[in-house]
Amino acid sequence: MEDLKLIFKKEIILLICILYFCNICQAQLSNNSSNQWPTKTVRIIVPMATGGGSDSVARLIAPKLNEQLSQPFIVDNRGGGGGLIGISMAVKSPPDGYTIMLISGSVPATIAAHKPDYDPIGNLAGIIRVGFSPLLLVSHPSIPVKNTKELIKFIQSKPNQLLFGVPGSGSLTHLATAYLMSITNTKMQHVPYKSTGYGMSDLLSGRTQVMMTGLSPMLPFIQNGKLRPIAVSTLNRWPAQPEIPALSETISGFDVESWFAFVTPKSTPSNIVSKLNTEINKLLNDQLVRKSFDALGIAVAGGGADDVDKRMRSEIDRWTQLIRDSKIQIDQ
After folding, report:
1. Maximum CA pair distance of the chain?
2. Is residue 24 part of a domain?
């Protein structure tokens, strides 16, 4: 009996040793795999439809990463749900560096507005912020205003009578306009659209009177007089259009950016995140890339991964508080 116990004890010890060394081998294999990354195609999820700012940025950077890392980087548009469909796909992807995602400032707004039943931020890790641009507040020429002060006064004289278009309830443009109204004690009715293009059509016809959206799509209509520029949403004037005032010149401290950043599923090996950060910072310093960003109306950012994580969390908190304090109705 004692011999059987001794044999059993030795077998247990042997099994423990085998499992221990298997774990070591698995860790080494995993480490070697991440050190050799990438060895196959990398998917870039864009949680928005084709043709928008996020899509343009992703398609600008993808071929450059292909050149630098000698593997294909393929853009995969997964629009819908204000970005939540694409975000859900990224969160559920293996954290192996072969799925990354390009998000914009609309994502924290969407998360705050729609409160998904999972924690996107807790399941995503920042890689790098690649760029930012202002939103532009414009009005239809049919309303007699030329600047921020006149617009505020006009809206105050007609509470809830003016209509402002937004590409999706709870989007960044929706919450930025709601933020403007909360500060200035003004009231307008929001009209949600499936995309900026649909909203622009009604704005140009005068069916809606106000919109705050990306700068670049608005410029041709400003130049031909079909829309009137009021102000940009960033803290300072935009260098490419210095003639357009900043909202902060009338409303102290007003600052809303439309920014773009790469993120990856949480637990992606740190050496892969670091390599991506290094390679993207490198290409952002390329003069041809910078010119391409300028053409899109986007300023180059760059920097560390921590900036993305901090920015996402702070903006979710910001928009969550605005929705609560202003009692914004999202699903109208």
Report:
1. 100
2. no
